[in-house]
Amino acid sequence: NENETTSATFKRATERCKRLLGLVENSTTPTNRTLAVNRLLHLLQQQHNSLHLTDIILRRCVSFLRSPSWEVRVTGSLLLGGMIPLCSAISSHCSHHQEEHQHLSS
Predict the structure, then answer these.
(1) pLDDT digits (tens, 9 = 90+) for 24-39
(2) What backbone phi and psi angles, to 5 degrees, belong to 27?
(3) Are 78 and 37 in contact (CB under 8 A)?
(4) Could you count the other beta carbons within 10 Å of the beta carbon of residue 67?
(5) Which residues in 6-21 are b (16+ Cβ under 10 Å) and which e?
(6) Which residues of 27-63 are buried (b: 16+ CB within 10 A; e: fewer)?
(7) Is 97 exposed, middle or buried (0-12, 13-18, 19+ CB in 10 A)?
(8) For the segment 85-98, what is each residue's pLDDT rounded down to a tens digit?
């Protein structure tokens, strides 16, 4: 039952992530795009920097940075810049677990 709840929560987070990414790309005002970026970053933190959500967002960031729209490119760079500290936390977390695994298997 707990797995079902976790799965449903993760599915909602993924859907919300995709909706917010759509706002980054399609919103007509810089304020709404910036708000979507802030909400995406908050969502990543709430989901404990989920690798799946991080992957979805990074893939879209690439398309944002290649967009013909200057505003979308700028917003994509804000999103990518906001993700750097979060990705560093993921990397540190993964390194820590890898060291623990190596220590336990010695």
Answers:
(1) 999 999 999 999 999 9
(2) -65, 150
(3) yes
(4) 15
(5) eeeeeeebbebbeebb
(6) beeeeebbebbebbbebbeebebbeebbebbeebbee
(7) exposed
(8) 877 665 555 554 45
